[in-house]
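task queued by scheduler; priority normal; single chain, no ligands, no partner chains; default sampling; output format set to structure tokens
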Amino acid sequence: MNIGLVLSGGGIRGVAHIGAIKALEEYGIFPTHISGTSAGAIVGALYASGANWSEILHFFKTIPLFRTKKYARSKPGFLDTEKYYENFKQFFPEDDFGALKKPLYVTGTDIIRGKLKIFHKGQVIRPVLASASFPGMFTPIKIGDAYYVDGGVLNNFPIEPLKNNCDKIIGSYVNPLKKIRIEDLKHSYTVVERAYKLKSASESLLKFSECDMIILPEGLSEFGTFEMNSVDVIFDLGYLAAKKILDKNGGVL
């Protein structure tokens, strides 16, 4: 049986996906096809490469997200996405979708043409980097003749590639909306981030009914998109949320 796993974006909250994967495997559920965007694209790509949950978690704990040497110069963004290539190379010695152990689909947004691209062939690292390039924070990635940013801009829950390939689909959504006050919107960045979340959340919610199981970790709205010091707590929330629904279903998908 082909089992699809959809992994949403959500910044560092994407670590909850790793906890969900651990819980699924403890119940003997091993997804065969992966579709992800942004942080979900990173987790999904590492999982598709054959890395286990502990290796993926270690990656998120050690990735040099805000090191000065990765700052962008004369590019539209604070951090140069291209400079993260080597951090991924160890997991993808053969930089090709065809070399992965599981079929993988990642989304990217063509920032010039305003179109969604679903990558599943050719080089894998650059599409994953592009999918995770949060607009304004990370620079766009050039692939072919186009420049791509975060796939979550146009599709933050990419279930579509799995619908014709899988018998069952599991969704893991880690980008919940937090209740706020106008006083919480102190900077231009917080306004942009709020608008971005509103759009992605409304579109993603409509797709939950297409999943045979949906994992929605509680408490993630308390963590910021780039809150790197909360990795272990976020991981546990994902694990516990998946375990709870699996227990409720008797471990059956």
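post-processing summary
- The longest helix spans residues 188-205.
- The chain has seven helices and eight strands.
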